[in-house]
Amino acid sequence: MTDVAAVFRSEYGRAVSVLTGVLGDIDLAEDAVQAAFEIAIKKWPQDGLPPSPAGWIITTARRQAIDRIRREQKREAKESAALQLIEQQQPGSEEVYAVPDDRLRMFFTCCHPALAPAAQTALTLRLLGGLTTAEIARAFITGEATVAQRIVRAKAKIRDARIPFRVPDDAELPDRLDGVLRAIYLVFTEGHLTTGGDDPVRDDLSSEAIRLARLLRALMPDEPEVTGLLALELLTQARRPARLDAGGELVPLDQQNRALWDRVLIAEGHELVRACLRRNHPGSYQLQAAIAAVHTSSPRFEDTDWTQIVALYDQLAAVDHSPVVALHRGVAIGERDGASAGLNALDLLADDRRMQQYAVFHAARARLLALVGRMAEAVAAYERAIELTDNPAERRDLERRLSADEP
């Protein structure tokens, strides 16, 4: 079961993308892949892990789809096309050699401008990241039923509008880019700190998001926001070796052993940030990457240039009015000007309903409240953050902080 779960996490998106390319039907592809994993759950514990688990899943899913098509007499045209593709496969082969890159095609299909932005991201996280509806709901800070409805409607829109499964032409790319960047980054952030499950991080998702960002940059090398996204992901991933201790517990940024940070990724990320600066067209991802570059330039947490970070957050807030940006700006102000100043900045967000459902907001307030001696309020804020947190390692970290600060 553990092997099946690992393959599901790493290969679900690829399998659905490949099958969609073969069948031209997202629902059929997803159903077939899910059926293949159900078969794997029964067979693999008895027969052992196949030499190519991903190939086995894709091949089994194709056969499941063909069986279903054969049972549906009205789909003769699709049956003929699918059967022809099956016949082209080498006998006994479990590998599927997809035309490069089916997952990138899927990103652009899911992020078609005919779909609402929230639907684009929900569908991408479902089909490319293999996240459950509940996990996506937590990432969106919204209800599970709402996310499920978005996904159903988005797939219906793709089907009814006959949105093509392809990378757009050059003239279409800019209009489709924002949704793709947002979706890739949300996949990365889900890997960086999971919204649920037993694993605090999912390196498979983070690595996949970096791979897709690299592919997108190869496709659009002159787009500074694509470069900015890749830089941001690399500089964030560079800190990964120090984010968990030997027992799998989260280590806060101010306590991390920076000698463990990946200097190769940091060097690449810094070079990409410099490339963005030379273009002088700042955007959200470029500014976030610049902030990450400042953090990774400091040999110690105490050496962090918070004045520069606040200035970058000021620029970011001018192009991205998200309360999450305002939250992180407030935290940076607290580091630069003291806990009271940071708390004043966060209090401006207190009436935002999204922030009230966001664990990071309450955790940030709790830390600042404790620093200014408002301990009862700090305890209440920690308790609210713990209540809203589904990541087990993050919850334990908050519980440790609560125990340390409790009077």
Automatic annotation (TrEMBL):
Membrane-spanning ranges: none
Domain RNA polymerase sigma-70 region per the UniProt entry, residue ranges: 8-74
Keywords, sorted A to Z: Sigma factor, Transcription, Transcription regulation
The RNA polymerase sigma factor 70 region 4 type domain, residue ranges: 110-158
Entry-linked Pfam families: DUF6596, Sigma70_r2, Sigma70_r4_2
Annotated coiled-coil segments of the chain: none
Region forming the signal peptide: none
InterPro entries: DUF6596, RNA_pol_sigma-70_dom, RNA_pol_sigma70_r2, RNA_pol_sigma70_r4_t2, RNA_pol_sigma_r2, RNA_pol_sigma_r3/r4-like, WH-like_DNA-bd_sf
Domain spans labelled DUF6596: 176-275
Family (UniProt): Belongs to the sigma-70 factor family. ECF subfamily.
UniProt protein name: RNA polymerase sigma factor
